[in-house]
Amino acid sequence: MNPILVIGATGTVGRQVVSQLIAAGSPVRAMTRNPDAAKLPPQVQIVRGDLTVPETLDACLDNTDAVFLVWTALPSAVAPALQRITQRARRIVYLSAPLKTPHPLFQQPNLLRSMFEQIERTVETSGAPWTFLRPGMFAANALLWWAPQIRAGNIVRWPYLAVPTAPIDERDIAAVAVRALREEGHAGAEYVLTGPQSLTHSEQISTIANVLGRDLRIEEITPGEARRELLTIGPLPAVNMLLDAWSAALGHPAHITSIFTEITGAPAKSFRTWVTDNVAAFRA
Ligand SMILES: NC(=O)c1ccc[n+]([C@@H]2O[C@H](COP(=O)([O-])OP(=O)(O)OC[C@H]3O[C@@H](n4cnc5c(N)ncnc54)[C@H](OP(=O)(O)O)[C@@H]3O)[C@@H](O)[C@H]2O)c1
Q1: What is the pLDDT of the chain when averaged over all its residues?
Q2: Residues near 109 by Cβ (< 8 Å), separated by ≥ 6?
Q3: What are phi and psi of 273, to 5 degrees?
Q4: C-alpha closest to that of 271 among 176, 215, 202, 184
Q5: 217 C-alpha vs ligand 1 centroid, how far in Å?
Q6: Which of 33, 58, 72 to mutate to test the pocket of ligand 1 (most atoms within 8 A of CB)?
Q7: What mean pLDDT is predicted for residues 216-233?
Q8: How far apart are the C-alpha atoms of 64 and 30, rounded to whole Å?
Q9: Is residue 135 within 6 Å of ligand 1 at its C-beta?
Q10: Residue 17, burial from CB neighbour count under 10 angstroms (0-12, 13-18, 19+)
Q11: Which of 257, 10, 46 is nearest to 134 (CA)?
């Protein structure tokens, strides 16, 4: 059996894809720029590859079956890398975003949108069977957004506290990816995946406080303050992208789908379950 290639194998979703593929009995090849730091299970064949250095992809793609693709590299590297990947992959499962869902959270202009669209167009026209995963907000964003503040003290400062989202557990995204990588019947599918529950930012932070058994003071900050204070979570364009999406989504219930359950037969994991399983990250 040829291995399934996981690009982005050391990331939030890719790491789960790797472990669930192993559990399902598939041989796995994991691509990373730095094999020494990969910390992946011993059964995994780890290969060095860089999406911005296209010639490194050939050895990664050699004799592979399906490819799981996460793209966080620069837009300028898309065309040469995708040309190689689409020529060689026998099936492609791409981690995209809900680009076509008519909910304001997902429809604000942003810098990454045209890059996602370029990747999708290249994959769609390549001739290889493909599946696009379109998850909404990751539950794991809490590690970047709130864990540092919660580890440091009892105050969480955040904008748009009343905006609801339906955070999805990365294990659920991976579970759908693994089915699309291993099973027939997912070609041409675009799966919009969300968590099971609409929760405001304030409710999500309160859930973390509750699981920790701590009293946290949640303070709303203005978008202007957020632009200055949230540079710890990313560069200004990324912060602006989030602020624009949240501003537009204010007053709209979160978009929730049942696609995860339709595909897997299991209920989507709640945000409380995600927090409980990741609680150590919020402890000092
Ligand atoms: N966060 C959200 O709420 C959300 C919602 C919807 C969609 N998304 C999408 O999900 C994707 C991110 O997924 P994630 O959070 O699982 O990723 P992540 O944790 O940020 O990890 C990024 C992965 O990409 C790999 N990578 C980065 N640059 C690379 C390069 N030049 N060559 C090869 N590999 C490279 C890294 O591997 P090495 O460092 O080991 O090389 C790492 O495994 C993005 O496309 C994002 O737009 C996110």
Answers
A1: 97
A2: 244
A3: -65, -45
A4: 202
A5: 32
A6: 72
A7: 95
A8: 11
A9: yes
A10: buried
A11: 257
pLDDT tens string 113-153: 999 999 999 999 999 999 999 999 999 999 999 999 999 99
* Helix residue ranges, H only, the chain: 12-23, 57-61, 78-88, 113-124, 141-145, 147-152, 170-182, 201-212, 223-229, 236-249, 259-264, 271-277
Q: What is the b/e burial string over 223-245, where b = at least 16 CB atoms within 10 angstroms of the residue's CB?
A: eeebeeebeeeeeeeebbbbbbb
Best of 39, 55, 70, 114 for a ligand 1 pocket test (most atoms within 8 Å of beta carbon): 70
Amino acid at 238: A
Say yes or no to pLDDT of 110 above 90. no
According to the model, what pLDDT value does residue 124 have?
Answer: 97
Q: Is the CB of 11 under 6 A from ligand 1?
A: yes
- The pLDDT confidence band at residue 69, using thresholds 50, 70 and 90, is very high
Which of 166, 167, 179 lies closest to 131, judged by CA?
A: 179
Asked if residue 179 lies in contact with residue 264, where contact means CB atoms within 8 angstroms, the answer is yes
Model confidence at 112: pLDDT above 90: no
Q: Is residue 107 classed as helix, strand or coil in its secondary structure?
A: coil
Token representation of residue 99: 């680009």
47-73 burial code (b ≥16 CB/10 A, e <16): bebbbeebebbeebbeebbbbbbbbeb
User: Is any atom of ligand 1 closer than 6 Å to the C-beta of 50?
Assistant: yes
The Cα–Cα gap between 251 and 162 comes to: 8
- Residue 94 near residue 120, CB atoms below 8 Å: yes
Residue 177's pLDDT is what?
99
Greater confidence (31 vs 284) lies with 31
R_g of the chain, CA atoms, integer Å: 19
Residue 106, helix vs strand vs coil: helix
